[in-house]
Design goal:
Length: 349
């Protein structure tokens, strides 16, 4: 990946809107991928979440197979698969199968969080041990199922079929410095979840670059940041489309697993002063607003982080406004209004 352009990708959660069925939500994710491909986005990722009524992307490999069948050029992948929830061999076989079907279009992004609450995580793992300290060993085994393992590993004679010898582009995903450092040490690409953890972005990306060691996977660092985008030229529409998601997030912070919030409920909801301050802090470094404001926000983030690209996470409540977010960002990019890190400074010299 070169540094002479800002690379654009999409992160989708297969959002289930109020009144929708799971089937409609999943079809919406496929439709989003088709739309992103037409607009020229490079990647379309889905993320693993469990037990959340408003998010239907609990099985990334299954959903990606449908996305791959509906598209032809865009890279598809996980943003990410939560490695502690699965046996590494199962992931290798699933993504080996995807690569057998869709070739080099398939990325494998991995995270170490559960993507759910503790009880659901225990149900997924069939154990009450939720320790993530074995993440490096699981990761090494997973990579080894694609590339081959040292004979000292007791799993070295096991082959992932499909998978062995068909190595995907590996990405580590995270919202802290831990994953950044691991990604750097392994010499793989790194994606930071700025769209929901914006306080540590610059420090994590700096740590990734400082930790990076060239490897068989990459010779230079490659970092993306997730940015939530809600956009319209009418500020009232931005507020209205943001409200259901904000209400759901507030309820999740209170320990609930909220059902999707209707537009009517969102319009009638009275945010407390504390909730308004929370929302302001949460959206301050995301790309909310008009097209001009979106451009300014994205450019400022890219400049401060040095990221190679941005993963757009559409945050609007309704699908047409999530599509509109992709339209606006792609239009800004085509017009030369989104620039890679250092480009603005270079242009002013």
């Amino acid at each position: 990946m070169s540094d002479d352009t800002l690379h654009l990708s999409v992160l989708d959660l297969a959002t289930r809107e109020y009144g929708q069925s799971n089937t409609e939500a999943l079809q919406g994710s496929i439709d989003m991928a088709v739309h992103a491909e037409k607009l020229g986005y490079e990647r379309f990722w889905v993320a693993e979440h469990h037990g959340m009524p408003g998010i239907t992307s609990s099985a990334p490999a299954v959903l990606l197979s449908a996305v791959g069948a509906a598209t032809s050029t865009i890279c598809i992948g996980s943003g990410g698969v939560m490695l502690p929830n699965h046996a590494p061999l199962v992931i290798a076989e699933q993504f080996g199968t995807l690569r057998a079907l869709y070739g080099d279009r398939v990325d494998l992004g991995l995270g170490r969080a559960p993507g759910t609450d503790g009880a659901t995580a225990m149900a997924l793992r069939r154990t009450d041990r939720l320790d993530v300290d074995d993440f490096p060993d699981r990761l090494a085994d997973l990579i080894g199922f694609f590339t081959g393992m040292d004979e000292s590993n007791p799993l070295s004679r096991i082959r992932a079929v499909p998978g062995y010898g068909d190595v995907p582009e590996f990405w580590l995903l995270g919202s802290s410095g831990y994953s950044a450092q691991v990604a750097g040490a392994l010499g793989v690409s790194f994606a930071f979840a700025h769209h929901f953890a914006s306080d540590n972005t610059e420090a994590a990306l700096a740590l990734y670059r400082d930790s990076f060691r060239p490897s068989r996977f990459r010779q230079t660092p490659n970092a993306l940041i997730g940015v939530q985008v809600v956009t319209d030229e009418d500020p009232a529409v931005v507020d209205e489309q943001s409200a259901p998601g904000m209400i759901s997030f507030i309820r999740m912070r209170q320990g609930a697993k909220p059902e999707p919030v209707s537009m009517d409920e969102a319009r009638a909801y009275e945010f407390t002063d504390l909730e308004r301050r929370f929302i302001a802090a949460r959206t301050e470094r995301q790309a909310y607003g008009t097209a001009d404001q979106v451009a300014d926000k994205i450019n400022a983030l890219v400049e401060s982080t040095g990221a190679n690209g941005v993963i757009v996470a559409p945050g609007a409540a309704q699908a047409r406004y999530r599509h509109q977010a992709l339209d606006v960002v792609a239009g800004l990019h085509a017009a030369g209004r989104l620039v890679p890190a250092g480009a603005a400074a270079s242009a002013s010299v």
